[in-house]
Design goal:
Layout (H helix, E strand, L loop, with lengths): L7 H8 L2 H28 L4 H20 L7 H32 L5 H19 L5 H24 L1
Length: 162
């Protein structure tokens, strides 16, 4: 056996560039922190009920705490940060449609159809339940999609009422 042959592990070690992985990790973590801050700003600017605003701000704080807890010494920290970034995107999607539902409910007022209001409130409650239960994955997005459809249907009724 010659000295020129290398093992699989030595080839993998030769390819590994630690500083690059750490740079990618810290960049991803900073992007996730920035997304949390953007979410927090959007929540503060939206005109939703104070209870929902507080719950969404708590969720943003929990998400930021989770991002801060990920250390580069953990196994696959980049994958964990990317997963948290996706969950933050789900929270942003939820905030967008909760705020839209609140605007439509205000436009509907008491003179709007009760069925449209009830459907919109139920969809909004489902989204808020997912946020309270820390179900920020696909379940939140599914509830957000249902809320999006309910908002679209209620918009039609709100246009008729106005």
């Amino acid at each position: 056996m010659s000295n020129n042959t290398t093992s699989r592990t030595s080839r993998i070690e030769a390819k590994y560039k630690g500083h690059r992985s750490e740079d990618r990790f810290f960049a991803a973590r900073n992007n996730a922190k920035q997304a949390c801050e953007n979410l927090r700003t959007a929540i503060r600017k939206s005109h939703i009920h104070s209870v929902m605003r507080d719950e969404l701000l708590e969720a943003a704080d929990r998400a930021e705490a989770l991002v801060k807890d990920v250390e580069p010494t953990q196994i696959h920290p980049g994958a964990e940060i990317r997963q948290l970034a996706k969950e933050i995107e789900h929270l942003q999607f939820a905030e967008q449609w909760v705020a839209a539902a609140d605007r439509v409910l205000n436009r509907l007022g008491n003179s709007g159809p009760a069925d449209a209001r009830r459907e919109l409130e139920q969809a909004q409650d489902a989204v808020m339940w997912c946020i309270r239960a820390n179900e920020w994955n696909g379940q939140l997005t599914a509830a957000g999609s249902q809320l999006q459809e309910a908002v679209a249907a209620a918009e039609i009724h709100a246009a008729r009422v106005s």
